[in-house]
Every structure is written in C-alpha cells, then in structure tokens.
Amino acid sequence: MGVPMEGETIQIHSYKHNGHIHRIWEETTVLKGTNTVVIGGNDRTMVTESDGRTWITREPAICYYHSQYWFNILGMLREDGIHYYCNLSSPFVFDDEALKYIDYDLDIKVFPDMTYVLLDEDEYEEHRKLMGYPDVIDKILKANMEKLIDWIRQKKGPFAPDFVDQWYERFLTYRNF
After folding, report:
1. Is residue 176 predicted with pLDDT exceeding 70?
2. Which residues participate in the annotated binding site?
3. Which residues catalyse the reaction (predicted)?
4. Would residue 23 show up in a list of annotated catalytic residues for this protein?
5. pLDDT digits 0-9 by tens, 22-60
6. Residue positions in the annotated binding site for Mg(2+)?
7. pTM of the full predicted structure?
8. pLDDT at 9 over 90
9. What is the distance between the terminal CA atoms of the chain, rounded to a whole angstrom?
10. Domain ranges of the chain
C-alpha cells in the first residue's frame, strides 16, 4: 500500500461489500499522509454516484481516514458550526488510483453541540442479507461503532476542539485563489 504525499490531490473511491463502486470524490487535497492516517480537505468537489449522477459538495470538509479503524470521519464547516458525518467502513487502502474503502451503510451524524444520531440501520440490515456480510464483519463494525461513539463523547481525534479548524487552515494554504 502506498502513502499519499502532503499537498497531492487524490480521488476517494467508496465501494460496497460486493465490490461495486458506490461513490467517487474527484479531488481531495492530502494534508497529512502516513501508513496509518490520511487527513484531507476538499471544497465544492464533484461527487459521482454509482448510477453516474453527479453533484458538488456544498461546503469545505476535512476528511479523516485510518488504516486500523473501521470508520472514517468528515468534518463539514458550516455557518452554524462543524457538522460531522461518520461512515462505518473498512480501513482505507491507498494505491496509484485513489484512497479506497468499503462503505458498510451505517452512519453517524454529529451536530455542532456534539449530539449525534445513528443513520441507515435498515439499509445496513438489508445489505447485510443481500450481500452476505459475514458475522465477523458485523462484530467488527459494531465494536468500531462503539469506539466511534466513545471518540464523539470524549471529543477525541477529529472531534477534538480546533481539530477541523486547524486542518482547514492548512487546507487553505494549498488553495489557488
């Protein structure tokens, strides 16, 4: 597995358990790239869905991917504060093509006051049956969901005060205005 270089622009590819592409983010600027963590930033980037539809993100986001945890975290900078969208997913891999992970449907939305809501439990159960998620994957995802909730409650990692703001300042140094 390669390591993306700081300042490099990469794509992010999200897959489903069956190997089919789920979503592609066209441009994310790498702010930190190691074997274990990739932190990126993007703003108004094109996203392509599996059915070919495209849309543009509405606000700047700081993205956090880890090679050992089964989740990734997006911190979106909005006028009323930082909103987080957390995907339960496989750990990331990076190759010459993109940063890649498998999206396992379950999501946690975190509001600026750090309250949160679990999303897409029905979709997870439907896809678990349809795509045959093994029991071991189910156990790993549930354990990582607990770890993610602990991070939210403890304001750890990307949920720490100033984490997103500090990385956003670094992202702005790479922007061409």
Report:
1. no
2. 87, 103, 105, 107, 120, 123
3. 23
4. yes
5. 999 999 999 999 999 999 999 999 999 999 999 999 999
6. 87, 103, 105, 107, 120, 123
7. 0.95
8. yes
9. 33
10. 9-174
